[in-house]
């Protein structure tokens, strides 16, 4: 609901750093709730797409390249303008599995060891764009490794199926 409240301007409108209102290739860039915005060492923003049918990395195809390129370019520009952080000092990635199923992209300070920014869960946006430009169905076909905590419901399902 937090995501929809942002997209519908019911909440956090004062926190929006950038918005591209295009319904197909637009997004809203907001500070993540984990970042207190007092220092840049742990800079953490999230780009939330307007399109509701894109749930995760698995849904992406070459059709979404304009959206992903907008997020990459406009997100970097907005962060440089507002916070003075150059794109060379940003880590820009998607989680798989995501913490919520509405496509969003993380922007963190390069030196910040943000939760889920490691290779097992984070997929760099620039790599995602390159992969989709090469093969539109890349993420429908590719095996994706991801970590699970023992208390997660999905882990329990893997256990019950004898896959762990």
From TrEMBL:
Protein name per UniProt: m7GpppX diphosphatase
Q: Magnesium: is it a keyword of this entry? A: no
Organism of this sequence: Piprites chloris
Gene Ontology terms, MF aspect = 5'-(N(7)-methyl 5'-triphosphoguanosine)-[mRNA] diphosphatase activity; RNA 7-methylguanosine cap binding
Gene Ontology terms: biological process: deadenylation-dependent decapping of nuclear-transcribed mRNA
Q: Where is the signal peptide, in residue numbers?
A: none
Q: Name one GO cellular component term.
A: P-body
Where found? Nucleus
Q: Which UniProt keywords apply?
A: Hydrolase, Nucleus
